[in-house]
Amino acid sequence: MADHVHVRLSQGLSVSEAGELIEHSHCRCGATFTKVFTANDGEPEQPPSS
Questions:
Q1: pTM score over 0.70
Q2: Predicted local confidence at residue 42, as pLDDT
Q3: At the top level of its lineage, which domain of life is listed (predicted)?
Q4: C-alpha of 47 from chain center
């Protein structure tokens, strides 16, 4: 029997009340995953001016 490897399929993104970006994903086996990205304090990034 081969080892199972989780394939993370995206379910979407959301933003918490604290301003964190939350990535939701799942595997076909039923496992679910949540990854939280926290923004650094400071000024927001600005796109380069053209």
A1: no
A2: 66
A3: Bacteria
A4: 22
